[in-house]
Design a protein that fits this description.
The chain contains 17 helices and eleven strands. By secondary structure, the chain is α/β, with parallel strands linked by helices.
Length: 382
Amino acid sequence: MGNLVHKINFNGGDVAYWAPRKAFLFRDELTALPSYLESIWLEYGITDQILFGDCRPVHSYAATHAESIGIRTHVFDGGYFRPFWITLEREGVNGHSLLPRDPDWFREVGKRLPDTVEYEEFHAPFITQATHDVLYHLAGLINPLVFPHYKNHVPFIAPLEYAGYIKRFSFIKLFKYQDTRKINKLVAEKKPFYLLPLQLNSDAQIIRHSQFENMPEVIEYVMRSFAKHAPDGARLVIKNHPLDIGMVAYRKIIKQLARIFDVAGRVVYLESGNMNILLTHASGTVTVNSTAGGLAVGLNCPTITLSDAVYNLPGLTFQGGLDAFWKKIPKPDTELFHYYRNTVMYTTQINGSLYSGAGTKLAAINAARVLQADKSPLEELL
């Protein structure tokens, strides 16, 4: 049985990727979007809506108001576990997720679920994702004429982003060589070190789901606490996000803060590096709400989150303040993580990808089952 689908295009990229199928074109100021959406919801009897992320300006009203008139919202996002998974939840993801923050619920539910989740692996090269990104933004060249009021949710226009990527990745081989030497030295010295993996500066999980405005604020907050409360001789390793475009001078900022907080020589900055090696040897991980935090918990590395990440559960992450974390770092409960992972995989994760051919076909097949069900897997268990 088929389903009638209506699509709203907000920019040239949307048009290019949806053509030649028909779609609505929203060309007005963002302030007009609520009434525009409501008119479509009512006129066409919309029962369900699908979003990618729930924090972008063009999605916020839809995500928060559709339920009041009986419309279900399905939200796709990057996977909580990667690389072969994407997230599909009803009503919201990450900070808006319906996943409980009760460890006992995961223990109870996890015992009833299979110990392993079957999935298919596929090849998803970064160049494919990059190509789609370039093509999408090239189509946006028509925006000034066709969508004059459209504003991207990221702070930089595409040409600046690409220039940043090119500049950063032209040095990536040198970074990897230098960073590998730094990591090997850290491991060989066997002195305690703590890891702070950076998130993208424009990440909605920072801007919308945390107390911070940007990553430099996070770095300053963590370095100040580290300087005052970390054990003598311990080091703080700050690793940049692999997709950072180089618009923020993190190396310079960290160097300045190290002088201010008198920890010069105790802070190591990495542009690259093997996360598994770092997390296996780290004394602890500090994150806002990065997926790297979930990886850290899975590798039994003591972890603290600085916001309400979906894995921020008593027994998995440290529940005291950051100042106490440096010296009181209990390891995650491995049994609880096993139940947590099984439950999250079963209820919110779709085997597939948004960018590779084979992965996208796989995601479409697996998502269709969830989208058409009366209740989502999570709703069935709640």
